[in-house]
Design goal:
Structural class: alpha+beta
Number of strands: 32
CATH superfamily of the largest domain: Kelch-type beta propeller
Largest sheet: 4 strands, antiparallel
Distance between the termini: 21 Å
Number of helices: 8
CATH topology of the largest domain: Neuraminidase
Oligomer: single chain
Low-confidence stretches: 70-77, 79-90, 118-134, 361-366
Length: 435
Amino acid sequence: MDDNLLSEREIEVLQLVGQGKSNKEIAIDLNISINTVKVHIGNIFQKTNVTSRTEATLFAIEHGIIKSPVSQNETDENKSDSAVVENSADGKSKSLLKNRWSLVILGVLLLAGLVLLLTKPSFLWRKESKINAPQQKWESLAPLSNARSSMAFATFDEKIIVIGGHSEAGVLDTVEMYDPTTHTWSTLSHKPTAVYDASAALIGEKIYVPGGIAATGAPSKVVEVFNPRKNTWEKCADLPIAVSGYGLTSFEGKLYLFGGWDSLKPLDIVLRYDPLTDTWQQESHMPTARFHTAVLADNGKIYVMGGSDNKGNLNTNESYSPYKQQENEDPWLVESNLPERLSGYAAIKLYDKISVLGGKSSVSGAIDQYHFTPAENDWQIVNINSETSNTVTEAAYILVGDYIYMIGGKVDGGYLNTVSRYQAMFTMLLPLTIN
């Protein structure tokens, strides 16, 4: 391995990944934020050309970053005989050691396969036909104080923060936080500028909320930043253009904003914000102008999926590479189209797949999840039983821990304060220790 391939911090993160620790546990051990851990893991995946934590662990074992548990035990048990082994020129002994190493790797692979077999949910099945997954039971939780839709939302310290939105009273500036451990809501400091149809993204320990539609009914340029620990708001540099309905994500400590609506037309803009310099910069335009897209950063790429243009909903799926942009190469790649034309959906990461979900499918009548596997560039559809017989729109869908939460939204023009969740990920802990 190139000695300069991984930084010292990335090696520390990789060692903890190899111990089977979660992002939250790694953040606690290294005294950094969970978002920073995700950035380091993404960099590790990119630099080592792996796509999963299991592959990263095998890479670490192969390159001596962490020790195989079996080889470590053998070393401890045979210290008294080490001189004999080291000084032996017997070819059979060398062959035996090589075979033992192969068995160690095989054992790790078999263990990883067992974990996948035991924890593999229905949406990881083959895609020959539409998957009818076992119907999940939605769990009703404590409602919002204010019924709302089209709000911005983010997670911080495993808590859900809901910002602004639209209600019967008009455009909201209220901010509420949900704690999944106590199932309670609390009210936080109001956002200085009331908006809806905006998005939020976390960088470090601050939540950025650009633009959106203001109380005037027009898109806004204002960018405001919330500090959850201090419960305070501050303003940063305005957007270069007033916009709402954009796609937003954070990637390696910067914000990336895609497309949106300027009150007249869908946009193809890509804007990058650097919090260190408090500046916005325009990057290479999207191949397809659109708004209300689902956006997710994964393994060195940012996927921009679905959305709407002047003619209707889209099934377009394109990926953007910030690394190629830095090298002045074309950063855009056309990916496999969505199975349906979708707009206003959310994107989350489930295992090795990108899940796009929201609303109710016009095809199945249920809440559909569309699972994209980047490595195979293909899609699967999983029907998840709806918690209501009516079509819900403009709700927030967000993953916290093993659960997908559905918050607020609209039904038949009426605003909802309902909150529900279902378990989307299942984990089985096995007794594996890597020193």
